[in-house]
Amino acid sequence: MKPLNRKLLRELLHMKGQMLAVAAVVACGISVFVSMSSVEYSLRLSKQTYYSQYRFADVFMQVKRAPSSMIDLVRTIDGVAAVRTRIIADVTLDVAGLDEPASGRLVSIPEKRRQVLNDVFLREGRYIRQGHPEEVIASETFMDANGLKLGDSVGAVINGRWKELRIVGKGLSPEYIYEVQPGAFFPDNRRFGVFWMGRDAMDASLDMTGAFNDLSLSLTHGASEKDVIQRLDQLFSRYGSLGAYGRGEQLSDRFISDEIKQLGIQITVLPTIFLAVAIFLLNIVLRRLVSTERDQIAVLKAVGYTNEEIGLHYLGFAMVPVVVGALAGTGLGAWLGVQLTGIYAAFYNFSELLYSFRLREVALSVLLSLGAAVAGAMGAVRQSVALPPAEAMRPDAPVVYKPGVLDRQAFQKKISVPVRIIVRNLERRPWKAALSVLMIAFAVAILIAGRYSYDAVNHILLVEFSQKHREDLTVLFNESRPRSVSNDLASLTGVLQQEYYRDEPARLRFAHRSRRQSITGLQHVDGLRRLVDARNRSYSLPENGLLLTTTLAGILGVSPGDTLTVEFLQGKRHTARVPVAGTIDELLGLSAYMRLDELDMMTRSPGLVSGSYLTIDGKEADALFSKLKQMPGVGGTSMLKAMQKSFEELIARSMTTSTVILTLFAAVLAFAVVYNGARISLSERSRELSSLRVLGMTRREIALILLGEQAILTIVAIPAGFLIGIVLSVMLALGLSSELYRMPVIFSNVNFIFALAVIVMVAVVSSLMVRFRLNRLDLIAVLKTRE
Fold it and tell me: pLDDT by residue (tens digit) across 283-295?
């Protein structure tokens, strides 16, 4: 082994604590990068593969009822590659072991299996048989949530008639990667499922022979989606079309696409912080090392070593811990990626979601770590090679200092010597102190940002399930019904309170912008259904005009006082001019609200309702549920508390995992900064501290001088970290928000107390370790003067 390599190894072992701390910080940053990059790629690849294998459509459209002959006209549209017509119906289900009614979406499939758009992946069982109208394929999530097996039956009310559906297959579809009930945002897999049923059976059950109510198609390469959608709207306007839309507006695709986008944001933020801290630590450690080895550098140059050899030698002090950290971080990142992929598999329903680890991630992690090593060591390396041998043989020139604030005569007797020494040292090295504070503050910020999602989700749950919605049960009609139907619900035994509402599909236009959006007509907003914004503030319905969510107003480019052109997509399909009366910053989705009586007048078809909100008597719930399970005209029901419980159970695992990971990583970051800062201070001031010991100071006073400085830096860093954490959380909220949901910027006291407790605990542990080394300080060896 070459002499310089032996020297490198010997000094690395001597500085193993500091080097391991640097390696740990690098490992954290690389592991976050590798895991998030791999998961993002795995989700993207799984989505693309799933869409391709099962032919996920590019354009979708729902109609009231259109003749099957229209398919020939659709095929003539320029850019259309393949077309599929279907029948889709929402029904009420009676599931064994489930007291309350469940909701199901029936989707028609060919009687004989063939390749079609939006095909079904069979996990278990078999395809339906021709001539067996009772056979269906049920969604995997619904079957698993209810403990259903192949051969089990589920009761359903289809077009007012009771029918037993026998499950022969367990399946999935790219159309329902995120499987939620229409109109909902949170999955409730036990009470909502998708069922694929033979086309002939659905034709007969729904009186749809020779017709369809759903159209999907794929486009040729380079085709204009906008032109195809415009042509479809023209062709099907007389058949009750609700407006064609592209894949980007399909609910399931929007959820998974937003998730992939969010992962891309997270890939850059956290690794950047960790690698920045690693650069800082390496720079400080190596500058101190070069300063203490001036005489050795002079000797090396005198005996013939070149500047390049000496520079590479000191660069090795950075390369070794960083390479070790990169290797450990890559392995840890691969393991974390597997765990995170398992969590995403619980949220999203892929036919196969496999963790894909690419060499690209390894290469990028190595490049990132090498970049961190070079950036951190460059200043120290330049300092080492710039020293001429004759100058390097002399000790550093004493630094000229000015009296500090506490060195004035007025403070001499009032403040103890250790405190004056601490303050004096901080005053003389303000930039080093400021950087140390910033690095510790980053650790605090990661803790704040890591738990921010807890606060945000809890706030969403509070607003959505406690303030905005106060009903126990929502009953959805399979089509608009006379208001008397809703009144019939109110008369059922067990119903304590009832409010009806109306959803009217429309296209909102302003200048060159337009958006398909249902207008919700409400009786009032001081009962079961309320209007509450992101800050939990209540709103009332305007006397005249529309109340739009802030995001929808931004998409349309309107503000209060502007006038929208509203094209109604049902009934007489007329247009109206409606003023925008105000906006409300809701957390979920896009909405347009107005008074129910005004909506009735605008649609020219008064007295219709789309569903009802109910509060029920728990003692009469079983009897009420039995009635609803067999009630014709009911397209589905949703239980508010059940949906909330399902969502909380679903996110509990992911929230706990991410919080634990970020807490551990932030603790490593804080420990590395505090421990290295104290160790470097001990190395730099060992002669000074030893002299003070010889002059009569106790070990406790010496420890106070050394560790008190680190304590002050940590105390100052905590509020700075709170501020940076808030800024980082705001950035994450902006980056993670989408049209489907907005992350509220809100923080609980528990968040800040948790971050404070972790940082204090880490600072105490690192201080105890440095105190141990301080107690073992060899006074005689330290006080030897270098001549």
Answer: 777 777 776 666 7
How many CB atoms within 10 Å of residue 284? Answer: 22
The pLDDT, as a whole number, for residue 670 is 77
Exposed / middle / buried, residue 116 (Cβ in 10 Å: 0-12, 13-18, 19+): middle
Per-residue confidence band for 249, with pLDDT thresholds at 50, 70 and 90: confident
Residues contacting 634, CB < 8 A, separation 6+: 92, 101, 157, 475, 476, 477, 478, 628
**Which of the pair, 361 or 588, is modelled with greater confidence?**
588
Q: Which pair of structure tokens corresponds to residue 529?
A: 């259904």
What count of other Cβ atoms lies within 10 Å of the Cβ of residue 575? Answer: 12
**Residue 110 identity (one-letter amino acid):** P
pLDDT of res. 307 = 75
Contact 278, 372 (CB under 8 A): yes
User: What is the spatial distance between Cα 583 and Cα 546, in angstroms, rounded to a whole number?
Assistant: 8
Least confidently predicted of 3-12, 184-193, 330-339, 747-756 = 3-12
What is the structure's pLDDT at 54? 93
User: 294-302 vs 307-347: helix axis angle to the nearest 10?
Assistant: 120
Per-residue model confidence as pLDDT tens digits over 639-695: 887 777 777 776 666 666 777 777 788 778 777 777 777 777 666 666 666 666 666
249: DSSP letter: G
Strand 513-516 with 211-219, pairing = unpaired
Q: Where are the domains of the chain?
A: 57-254, 468-642
| Three-class SS of 10-66 | HHHHHCHHHHHHHHHHHHHHHHHHHHHHHHHHHHHHHHHHHHHHCCCCCEEEEEEEE
Q: Residue 68: pLDDT above 80?
A: yes
Who contacts 147 (Cβ-Cβ below 8 Å, separation ≥6)? 97
Rounded to an integer, what distance in angstroms lies between the CA atom of residue 719 and that of residue 247?
46
Give percent of the chain with pLDDT exceeding 90.
24
Q: What is the secondary structure of 716-759 as a DSSP string?
A: HHHHHHHHHHHHHHHHHHHHH--SSB-------HHHHHHHHHHH
Residue 595: pLDDT band by 50, 70, 90 thresholds?
Answer: very high
Closest residue by Cα to residue 175 from 42, 343, 45, 54: 54
Residues 309-331: pLDDT tens digits? 777 877 777 788 888 888 888 88
Which H or E run contains 523?
none
Name the DSSP class of 252: H
Res. 782 pLDDT band, cuts 50 70 90: very low
576: β partners: 566
Averaged pLDDT, 476-491: 82
| 227 within 8 A of 80, measured Cβ to Cβ | no
Which residues lie below 8 Å from residue 111, measured CB to CB, with a gap of 6+? 128, 130, 198, 199, 200
Task: Give the integer Cα–Cα distance in Å for 79 and 241.
Answer: 20
Summarised one tens digit per residue, pLDDT across range 174-183 is 999 988 888 7
b/e burial code for range 412-428 (CB count within 10 A of at least 16 → b): eeeeeebbbbbbebbbe
Tracing tokens 């105190």 back to the chain, one arrives at 771
Concatenated DSSP letters of 764-780: HHHHHHHHHHHHT--HH
* Helical axes 640-694 vs 430-462, angle rounded to 10°: 160
pTM as predicted: 0.82
Instruction: Give, in order, the Cα–Cα distances in Å from 690 to each of 115, 693, 705, 774, 776.
Output: 83, 5, 12, 10, 11
User: Which helix (H) or strand (E) element contains residue 613?
Assistant: strand 608-616
Q: What is the DSSP string of 166-200?
A: EEEEEEE-GGGSS---TT-SS--TTTEEEEEEEHH
Q: Are 50 and 174 in contact (CB under 8 A)?
A: yes
CB 296 within 8 A of CB 11: no
